[in-house]
Amino acid sequence: MKKIQIFSYIYILGMLLSVGVAKAQNQQYAQFHHSPLLTNPAMVASDNDLKALFHYRHENLSNGFSYSNPMLSVVYPLITQQLDANGQVTAKKRWGGVGLGLMQDQTAAGNGGALQTLGFSGTYAHNLQLADNHFISFGAQGTYYRKSLNSSNLTTASQILNTGNQEALLANDGANGYFSLGLGAMWYQSNAIGGVKNYFSVSANHLNQPNYNFRDIGNTNRLPYGWVFSGGYEVWNNGTISIQPNFRWTYNENDNQFNIGALGHYALNSNHHLGAGVWATRKAFVGSIEYTYKNLLIGISSDLSYVSESRGTVPEIVIGYRKTLGGRKKKKKEPKKVVQQNTEETITSETPTAKYTIKIVKDAAGNVISRDTIKTESLTTEELTSSETPTHSYKIKLIKDKNGNVVRRDTLEAKMKDKDGDGVADVNDNCPDEAGTLANKGCPETISKAKLSDIQKELARHAHSLHFASGKTTINDESIPDLKAILAIMKKYPKNKFNIEGHSDNVGNAANNLRLSQQRANSVRQYFVNNGIAASRLIAKGYGQTRPEVSNATAAGRKKNRRIEVLVVQ
Q1: H helix runs in 401-538, sequence order
Q2: In a domain? residue 300
Q3: How confident is the model over 396-413, as a mean pLDDT?
Q4: What is the rounded CA–CA span in Å between residue 70 and residue 290?
Q5: Three-state DSSP class for 433?
Q6: What is the DSSP letter of 143?
Q7: Looking at residue 562, which CATH number applies to its domain?
Q8: Predicted confidence (pLDDT) per residue in 516-559, tens digit
Q9: Strand ranges (E), 4-64
Q10: CA-based nearest residue to 270, from 242, 302, 249, 240
Q11: Distance of alpha carbon 504 from alpha carbon 542, whole angstroms
């Protein structure tokens, strides 16, 4: 029984310590754009805003535990005034920033707080300007954490069995403290009012790897290094609406968290602003809304889990005060100038192409100080004309002065002549009065003996694929692609003529077969005539069953003999 009781104490304490340590070393808020001290110490030097912010987050964990996390933070930018020789402010430069943070996290079992961590942080960052509107800041942060355990809120096996809580492990409340050091760097661009427009930052936490053992229980355990990467890029800002996709990635050997999404703002007017953001994490979607009235801010967010081990919603609230520091530039005092009594007069002047109105300024002695042309009126006119040479035609714009003289001649268009419209200019066309091809120097192509065999095979392949309704002269729709292929060959060689032959098998009456083959040849010929081939180039002839290609003894042979032939006439 004694061993079982001790095991129960160790288990409860281990659960509290593991949850508490994991949360304390990775304390972050969903609205990370309002928590610079937790995201990167370099951020305290990134804008001109004095900030005082209060955060609160509550989360229900597994096994009946809960976790709450309030934090108060203050950020103050360090700005130096630049003065001129007269002591007037000409500009203000932000060279750094400081921040203070007071935080608490409490892990509770049931309704009572059992493990509590208090933290106090101090932050300093220095700002450097790399180029126009490009900055980099470096920050350092030191945080002291103090953990405490309230064993009165724990119920052990001994208490359940009414044997007393006698183990030394939980005999008295205890506390332990440690110090953590962090560094960070941030590149960013500022907007017109000194806020952050685009940025990328990286920070490292627990660089001294402090020992977080509680009451010297067990071996020494040191916090691992932690890394936080964050960035944002403003993709839209029209003065009223701004949209900035952003992300944060928190990483160490015990934990790996990310938020990726976008933040948007809408200015209702100069005093009222609305904001909204949405982010995805490993286990939930996070949504936030915020409202700003003058310098006062309130924002809320909540998690919506999309995994089976849902812990329900995780509410978070931020309340804050922000004020932009820096003020406006003051104008440098200029010595008074002696006002001279100048006079002005306006005259006109003309050339053949233009009329000018001129303002002349003279001093008290009548000397011309300045002469400025304040108005110019064109006196020219435009006229369109055309011109031709034996090989070219031109469209020309003539610019004439007020006397009708041509002062400029602009060629608007120049074309080489092409009488037959075959795309080959007459100067390069061996057949200027007859349409041809570029490859044949403007003359129509004919089928040479070298090409005849290949072209005849191509014609046969398509012609043998032509089909008709049974006993009819109507060409089936499935034959149209083959007809078009034959048509293209006929158009490519306009000098050649073609014979169209109709053939049949020996089934049925020979006279009927002869008549049907002639009608089908006529149908094919008519298709080509209807599609632009001169009738004089086409001869249709039906041969019936008199010219079989193979024997009619088989069904396959008879099918092959029922055919159309298209032949080139040399």
Answers
A1: 449-463, 480-492, 510-530
A2: no
A3: 89
A4: 18
A5: coil
A6: E
A7: 3.30.1330.60
A8: 999 999 999 999 999 999 999 999 999 999 999 999 999 999 88
A9: 49-60
A10: 240
A11: 9
